[in-house]
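in:
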């Protein structure tokens, strides 16, 4: 599995991204020193419709129920 990881060089203070298949592999900077893998935050979104964020989901239901109600036509 190909993954993008952030790496930093302690010698020249550069931060780079590399596509890697093995996290344990040693990568080298242009200056020749070994790069250190940085911890990055995972990308995620709390989606109100999926139930991952229950307060927002309840609000979404109430908003859409109210939006679907229509007044009867006089005619």
């Amino acid at each position: 599995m190909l993954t993008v990881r952030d790496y930093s060089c302690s010698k020249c203070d550069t931060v780079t991204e590399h596509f890697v298949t093995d996290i344990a592999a040693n990568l080298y900077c242009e200056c020749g020193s070994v790069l250190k893998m940085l911890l990055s935050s995972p990308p995620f979104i709390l989606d109100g419709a999926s139930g991952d964020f229950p307060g927002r989901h309840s609000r979404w239901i109430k908003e859409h129920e109210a939006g679907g109600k229509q007044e009867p036509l006089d005619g």
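note: The chain is about 20% helix and 20% strand.
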